[in-house]
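Hi C.,

You asked whether I'd gotten around to modeling the 266-residue construct. I have! Everything is below, sequence then structure, no commentary in between.
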Amino acid sequence: MSGTPAAEYGFTMGSTVTLVTRSGGEMYCGSACEFFRNDQLDADRGCPIQQVGGLPRGKLRQNHFGGAFSGPIHGKSHFLFVNTEFLRVVEGVETRRTSVPTAEEGRGLLRYQDSNGPRTLDLSDRITPTSRKLLGLFPRPNTSGAQDLNYSSSLLIRLNDYQTPARTDHYLSSKDVLNVRFSWNLNDQEYVINRFGGPFIPAFSVPNPEKTANAGVTHISSLGPSKVNELRAGVNRYRNPLANGDKSSAEIGLPNGNVANGIPSV
């Protein structure tokens, strides 16, 4: 919807989209669908089937499937329509680098160089039990590079999206129609390795489950050849219970720690 929306759409930031839901009919009908993508089936673009530009091809798994059902509930005056769709995507199309402690650094041995040459600072006796738990969460370096970026990992983005709308229509009379609808959606995203606000170390992905539910009731009355009265009431609920990785701060020993964007911290 372009321009300023009318008051009936309520207050919202960003865009406003209007949707028209379908009603059931006098016959029972159903349908099912599936859309499938896999990197093994992608064209090779003149390169070996597993490589693009000399690099391993990124992973892609996409399944979009669902179904719909409609029909009468009672006689020719009460009808039902319900639809459900599922979208599951795993995509890793690039590689990210980040910094993790080396084996020596994990033991408290820090190498540096001053005017006297290479030296090692031994802090092993200062590592607390909580710090040892935190250090144990980091993987070992698997590459070398500039700016101490010593860990390389494929960037995986996971998306599971589920949505189910349902609607019933009740013809109370030739002039009165009652419509009841409900819609539920779970958009479960997971960002891995430093992308879209994701973490800076592996093993601490950022799940982003967005849960939306809305319901509405509409009563339409025909008051005459040119007059129609429409009464609508609805409720919307949105939740985003952000989590972080597979460890909580309390498990590590930081009951008041911060779990935003990676490893638990103070």
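If it helps when you're writing up: DSSP finds three helices and eleven strands in the chain.

Thanks,
B.
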